[in-house]
Amino acid sequence: MAETISYRVQRHRDGLRAAGLRPVQIWVPDTRRSGFAAECRRQSLLVKNDPLESETLAWLEQASDTGDWK
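The structure corresponding to this sequence follows.
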């Protein structure tokens, strides 16, 4: 008898748990949602000339390791 997809998925998850991993669910903004780009722009404009934002961006650029990026 062929294994069902749900059985294979459960067996895979059991293997991950046995390896010491656990599932985590996260919720992220839906980039396809109407108004998403406008809200990104609105928030970006709020910090456009903020000295702390500039300082943070400078630090991120310095701390980033992008040497192997293509």
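The mean pLDDT is 93.
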